[in-house]
Amino acid sequence: MKAVGIRNGKGNADALFIEDNVPDPVASSGRVVVAIKAFGLNRMDIMQREDKYPYPLLPESGKILGVEFSGLVEDVGPDCVSGFKIGDKVFGLAYGGAYAQKISVSEKTLLPLPETLSFETAAGIPETYFTAIQAIHLVGGLQPRETVLIHAGASGVGQAAIQVARQGGARKIITTAGTDEKCALCRELGADVAVNYRNEDFAKVVERELEGKGVNLIIDLVGQSYWHRNTACAAMEARIVLVAAMSGSMVEGFNLRALLNKRLWVLATTLRTRDVEYQAKLRDRFVEVALEHLSTGRMRVALDRVYSWTQIAEAHKRMEANVNAGKLVCLVDS
What we know:
- It is a single chain.
- The chain is α/β, with parallel strands linked by helices.
- The chain has 2 domains: 3-125 and 272-331, Medium-chain alcohol dehydrogenases, catalytic domain (Quinone Oxidoreductase, Chain A, domain 1); 128-268, Rossmann fold (3-Layer(aba) Sandwich), CATH 3.40.50.720.
- The chain has 10 helices and 15 strands.
- The strands form 3 sheets. Strands 3, 4, 5, 6, 7, 14 and 15 form a 7-stranded mixed sheet that branches. It has a 6-stranded parallel sheet with strand order 10-9-8-11-12-13, sandwiched between helices. Strands 1-2 form a two-stranded antiparallel sheet.
- Helix 3 (126-139) crosses helix 4.
- The longest helix is centred in the last third of the chain and has 21 residues, at 276-296.
- The chain is globular.
- The relative contact order is 0.15.
- It comes from Zopfia rhizophila CBS 207.26.
- This is Putative quinone oxidoreductase.
- One of its GO terms (molecular function) is oxidoreductase activity, acting on NAD(P)H.
- Pfam families: ADH_N, ADH_zinc_N.
């Protein structure tokens, strides 16, 4: 098969190329081989491409990039019990390997594709929605009528988090984003307030909007540069869920008193290194919380651009520039 390779094993976006004669994956016990129609791009792909991943990946991640995809079932391995058949339209989550014509994945992280969703839309769902549901429900424990602050609201995870929080009964949702266009997208998706962080201090906006009471749940993908303002605008006994650290992970002037004075909970979570049983549980929660809403249009994925996978370098450059307002997806079209 063909797959996206990286010249010399690591490099910039121009090091990406379509590689021929890559070994086909196998449908071993409990696994399904999918002929990929589309795959989603995520910022973790940049770190892996550059060989700068912040923690060791599991062996099953492999060398091929990509963790979310859609396509057609090509083969079903022995001992599979989920009922998938050759030719079924599916989408799902993987530890790696989605930048390719074919992938072998556990049946436990695969889902049937609703007729109302296209391959390109579905390819942008799994990583973002699974991560958002994990952060808001499994880790953050959102309760009805609580207030939520979501950073990087126009990112794939941020978009999903806004909609998951709204569906979960949040009383007020405040987001941050870097352009007026991205802020408008956040409001379209259900945010009550969207703060352009280049023009306003989000902590002051939270104080104003919540009348000095602070926010109950903070979903943070930014990290270091937001830490002090996060603790400043958090409510008593608020939860801060760290999903990523795009601005860095070392916090200067860290003072434990900021946590003690408000009895704050700080929780950190990752998804890619969770075992398959945890990811299966998360898949089931996704079905419960979001799948029907996505199939009927009550929830959605905003696609920024859809590329041919032959334009993978261009797609990575757009992602690195952080100008996309929505998901970037590639079609496996050759």
